[in-house]
Amino acid sequence: MDYILNILVFILIYAVWVQSLNLIMGYVGVISMGHAVFSAIGAYTAALISVHLGYNFLVGTAAGFLLATIVGALLAIPSLRVRDEYLIVFTVGFQMVAYEFMLTARRITEGQGGIPNIPFPTLFGFEFNTPFKFLPLALVTAVICFSIVWRLVRSPFGRVLKAIREDESACRALGKNTLRFKVLVFALGGGIAAVAGSSLAYFITFISPGSFSVEISIFIIVMVILGGEANFWGPLVGAAILVGLPEVLRFLPGTAGIVDVLREIFYGLILMLMMIFRPQGILPEYAAQTKEVQVPTDLTVEGDTNDGGKMSSPEEKQVIPQVLEIKGLSKSFGGLRAVNDASLTLSSGKITGLIGPNGCGKTTIFNLITGFLDADGGKVYIHGKEITGRAPYKLISDGLARSWQDIRTFKDMTVLDNVRVARPKQSGEKILALFFSPWRVAREERENYIRALGYLKMVGLVDKAGHLAGSLSTAEQKLVAIARLMATECPVLLLDEPTSALDLESVERIIKLIRSIAQQGRKTILLIEHNLDVVRGLVEEAYFMSEGKVLAYGEPSALMADPKLAEVYFGID
Amino acid sequence: MKVLIIQLFVNGLITASFYALAGVTWGVIYRTTHIFHFAHHLVFSVAGYAAVIMTAEAHLPYFFGFFAAVAAAVLLGCGIDAFLYRRLRMAGATQATTFLASLGFGTAGVAILLFAFTSSPRRLLGFPTKVLSIGEAFFSVADLTMVIVSWAMIGLLLLFLAKSRYGKAIRAVGSNAEMARNVGLNIDRLYLLVFGIGSGLFGAAAFLFTAKNVAYPTMGILPFFMSFTAVFLGGVTSIPGHALAGFILGLAESLGMLVLPGEYKTMIAFAILFVVIVIRPEGLLGFRRG
Predict the structure, then answer these.
(1) How close does chain B come to A182, measured CA to CA in Å?
(2) What is the ipTM of this complex?
(3) Across the interface, do A96 and B88 touch by the CB < 8 Å criterion?
């Protein structure tokens, strides 16, 4: 009986451990190869505090949690500057260095031999000294940790995490400080892993580096994958199967001495085969391709009223006609001058075109304005305020939002969530508010829900609100992207080829939509477009670019009538 | 003290040459395919055991061991690409998915080696064990061969990439796979070629490593760790950068022993990588893609 209870306790401890990695790997999509180290921090901190200082297990657990959150946050900071595959490198390094530390820093960790005789946890004189008594403690710990993760992932915070996983740049362009989210998740994931580690220490009353090696980190990854990434119950399934498996192996004849080796072979093969045949795991993130979305019958269409006004700063009321001003912007890539002393001005409430042949620097200008590239020279002003070189995520609060030529919807999220995640100023994106002002978060969420559906009604996709964005056609995804842009409530929109690669009917639909956004929604729009019919249909005036320079400004038809420009545009030599 | 410094410096040059070679072996694969080929460490171990079997089990002269190591490495490396990565590519797998599959393959592979050969180290037989010296610094024939072979291979690889038709195609694929496909390059064949080259060179390094030390199932982990650290330290886009970074890591590891105990190898490498990447994310010789 004790044997079974023993296994159950292990499954619960591992489930917490795996859930903490699921938060990082499943929801944010960042692979951590050093997750065992966080548990090691928890385990060693707990052991040292309880063995040397004789403090209660709650103190040891809390101290381990705190230390691991700090380490987790520090580890995430390089991700400010480097892409995700570098995090694999950093976390492998972190794992190897920490393991060496555990082996060699004998004065703290007692080296290879580990720390024995950790006291069992006690609470009000009750000692949790058998698997039977420990089980309720492990269960309570698991329930607390799972509840925290549950709250996080099913909130505006969790939505942003998924958006980061799907497309970090697009998420930044929606005003989310993705570094902050990554740091928080690494901190919290590390902290929860530390809780699992200290539970382990208090349960087996002995810890050694072997429990936190790179093999263990990989083992935890395998459990996440097997259970199903970004599925809340996946970690429990993964832990139950893989903690249970070696116990079953033990009963097979002739396997006594080689269980550990066989287990390693199995883990490796499981990981590889899952990636080939079922990368989504046993429990996939979404059970069905569509989720049920209740649409209220009295839904109003968003975008008819001027949302932009709400975002405006006081000084904007003086009405500066030049909403967006770009002066002398320049950018070179190596020897290529992609943008060369370009200046343009957007007037309030108008659609201004930006046209020119392929590779003339139009998208580069967008990237310079929105902070995705650093300009070599020149300045950008919005409502008279300089925003040159501001980080992309700060521009939403300045009232500037952009779309992408390659659409960049968050494919493994529902259409509704694609729009909801773009809502600005969400208290539900702050961890403290999630746990301490749940009513405020709930109230905002009700509003978000209605408004997001309203934006979807505006683009005509309300009946697809529950579908995964990736399952929609290109045309529909472009509409989702527009609804998402509208949901930011920004008065100035930069649209990068909103009609490219579409059939005529869809082009018509999007032209109408953009026109109504500009007129009824009183948005100021800068439009990059190749399709001259679209330009003529939407734009009063346009800038003409070639080879990084702004060559002309005027009515589109006048620009195209100019033989010199037509020659540049159509490439007639 | 002076003698110690000279000896550490010589050791450093030997390790540095080994890491430089290790760096370019993974670098040429990563730069070209962008696959985070974690199973590279298994290629090293398998090559080491191939050399041991040839010399210690089949009692053949050591150069048969060398060929066996290189052949086993090429076969395994190409096999992984042809049967695992290609399949994942066709299914449209992400970089993370491919990495995890590679991680799984490497983990299972090392466990199989452990199953077949146990964890007790195995020795390669027949390689000259004479100790040479310059002044007061001592080194083995294996050490000297390591230095010469490493730099010769790095030189040949760079020459091949710069001058030959295939080398140019490989560079083109690495810079822009889509464009390369459009001008009619056969991506799958070129990937197979770089896996062959990278694995073969790593296999040669594994032979020399085994001649100098011993073979054991996880022998590939540390060289692999140094190889990808060198790649990111040197800058993903620059193969000479990988060699330079490997060289720096090896020298730093050896000279680091003047101040730190020998167990802190990975700590030194990791600290260097961390500092450089935070200051200069594109690496020492890399450039940022626009």
Answers:
(1) 17
(2) 0.90
(3) no
